[in-house]
Amino acid sequence: MTEDILSRFLMESEKNPEEMTDLYLRDIILNFMIAGKDTSANTLSWFFYMLCKNPLVQEKVAQEVRDVIGGKAEDNKANIDDVVAAITDATLDQMHYLHAAMTETLRLFPAVPVDGRCADVDDILPDGFKVKKGDGVYYMAYAMGRMPYIWGEDAPEFRPERWLKDGIFQPESPFKFIAFHAGPRICLGKDFAYRQMKILSIALLSFFRFKLADETKPVNYKTMFTLHIDGDLPLCAVSRAAS
Ligand code: HEM
């Protein structure tokens, strides 16, 4: 039987029915849906937007996909089943450029653009700033991702190469690259999110080259809890086999 996340929790709940009630299971699934759906979907929209704005990066990602999973797309013989069968943990781990391009997208377009906490008790921050019980303390991941102070003078540029050394992805401290939060309450679904986003991107980029339907249409964010694109993002998908 294929085990999805709900069936795994259901099996666990049979061992521990007192604590893992239906209400508890409902809350877990809702939590995963709220935490995981819009964040990953919006990141994919911004990722494809960045690939359209930076066609060279798009070609480099597509080339890496071809190099790692066997180059079939290039021979015009690509078959979706072959491509999907070639996506394994081992092949995903080899796609450093794809990982860098997604991370660069999240630096500039963090799915949770503002996050924070409310102080339970009076406290003093490491720099001496006094926080009173009930005060809110927020950080702006969106602004932090664009600060030259943190990322250097080229902070506004979309440059996946900044994450690579000799072709290998170099992670940053989560307190610097804050898109998934940091510390004990860091995103639990980070690896899951990268994997899902990579699988979808590999499947699409193996077969299509993407372009903005209207290069002149401004693309802005909409102020919401997650970083949505304002309106829609019409793209043209051009078959790689035809070009
Ligand atoms: C690009 C995708 C994602 C981004 C940018 C993201 C970002 C974040 C951030 C910033 C937080 C901290 C929220 C806070 O405590 O204030 C968080 C928490 C969390 N995320 Fe994600 N997330 C993503 C995808 C996912 C996915 C796919 C799942 C589940 C399958 C998930 C599950 C969770 C859970 C369970 C928490 C709460 C962790 C805790 O409080 O201990 N996330 N995420």
UniProtKB/TrEMBL annotation:
The keyword Heme applies. SUPFAM superfamilies: Cytochrome P450. Gene3D superfamilies: Cytochrome P450 (1.10.630.10). InterPro entries: Cyt_P450, Cyt_P450_CS, Cyt_P450_E_grp-I, Cyt_P450_sf. Heme binds at residue 187. GO terms for molecular function: heme binding; iron ion binding; monooxygenase activity; oxidoreductase activity, acting on paired donors, with incorporation or reduction of molecular oxygen. Its cofactor is heme. One of its GO terms (biological process) is lipid metabolic process. PROSITE patterns: CYTOCHROME_P450. Coiled coil: none annotated. It comes from the Eukaryota. The keyword Glycoprotein does not apply. Belongs to the cytochrome P450 family. This is Cytochrome P450.
